[in-house]
């Protein structure tokens, strides 16, 4: 299927061939031992991004918890109008429940964006930790790629507990790889910046696993961790790890917290001088 890929200042149509897809699958780093019957949505989107590699500077969007709501339809229109974006990453909870029809509706909506959209699984996208449908449609649930010296590492913590030993070993390998910047994306955050003192809040349920992950990300000086799951916007820092939560793409907002609970997406710009994050409010 052809993708429309966009460079700042204009549109470029790229037709993605099967050979390009398989070249990307060989070159991109995906979870070891994960078998898929066909390339899936994410590898095709990665091929489009790779084909249209924008170089520095480039901007992309991050948003999460879209849930196929009318708000997400409005959000898609706003993303389409943002001509600065080269691609977007959607941080899970694409749908309310993992049903074929729901995923088909989601795919139709992101097809209107005009730019490639990568996704990762949220807890609402899997059926009691069964990822078979997600994998058939989207491909491997965790993967990584590099653009202009920035390593993008997409994790799968849709079980809401943590990552298993295989994914942990894979993650450490990605973090050790040379890169100018390292950006990590996950659905469930390792901690909840809005939780009351002494409470876990809406984050990874296994506190030990969360602390170990924070330690690993801090050890390798990850630039940012982007997560969703909490239907709001938060910025926080712990053990040197910068966490930004963006879960305002469509699902019901988490309470009336001023300055946090509003519909939005993030515009992230990677330049030679560093990384800039901006919050784009759906209703300014």
In short:
The chain contains seven helices and 14 strands.
Quickly list its features.
disordered N terminus; single chain; 27% helix; Purple Acid Phosphatase, chain A, domain 2; seven-stranded mixed β-sheet; 284 residues
Please tell me about this protein's structure.
This protein has 284 residues and is an alpha/beta fold. It has a single domain, classed as 4-Layer Sandwich (Purple Acid Phosphatase, chain A, domain 2). Helices cover 27% and strands 26% of the residues. It is built from seven helices and 14 strands. The strands form three sheets. The chain has a seven-stranded mixed β-sheet with strand order 3-7-8-9-10-12-11, with helices on both faces. It has a five-stranded mixed β-sheet with strand order 6-5-4-13-14. Helix 1 packs across helix 2. The longest helix has 13 residues, at 207-219. The protein is globular.
């Amino acid at each position: 299927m052809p993708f429309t890929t966009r460079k700042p200042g204009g549109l470029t149509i790229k037709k993605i061939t099967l050979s390009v897809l398989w070249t990307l699958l060989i070159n991109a780093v995906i979870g070891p031992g994960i078998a898929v019957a066909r390339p899936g949505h994410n590898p095709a989107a990665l091929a489009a991004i790779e084909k249209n590699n924008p170089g520095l500077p480039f901007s992309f969007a991050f948003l999460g918890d879209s849930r196929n709501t009318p708000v997400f339809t409005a959000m898609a229109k706003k993303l389409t109008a943002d001509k600065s974006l080269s691609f977007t990453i959607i941080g899970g909870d694409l749908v309310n429940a993992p049903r074929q029809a729901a995923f088909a509706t989601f795919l139709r909506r992101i097809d209107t964006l005009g730019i490639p959209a990568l996704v990762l699984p949220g807890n609402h996208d899997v059926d009691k930790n069964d990822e078979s449908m997600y994998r058939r449609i989207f491909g491997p649930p965790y993967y990584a790629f590099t653009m202009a010296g920035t390593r993008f590492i997409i994790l799968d913590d849709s079980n809401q507990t943590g990552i298993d030993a295989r994914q942990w070993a894979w993650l450490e390998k990605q973090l050790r790889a040379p890169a100018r910047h390292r950006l990590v994306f996950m659905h469930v955050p390792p901690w909840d910046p809005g939780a009351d003192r002494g409470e876990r809040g809406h984050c990874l349920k296994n506190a030990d696993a969360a602390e170990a992950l924070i330690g690993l990300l801090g050890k390798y000086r990850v630039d940012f961790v982007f997560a969703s799951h909490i239907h709001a916007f938060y910025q926080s820092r712990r053990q040197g790890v910068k966490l930004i939560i963006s879960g305002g793409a469509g699902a019901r907002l988490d309470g009336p917290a001023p300055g946090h609970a509003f519909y939005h997406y993030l515009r992230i710009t990677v330049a030679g001088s560093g990384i800039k994050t901006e919050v784009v409010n759906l209703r300014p």
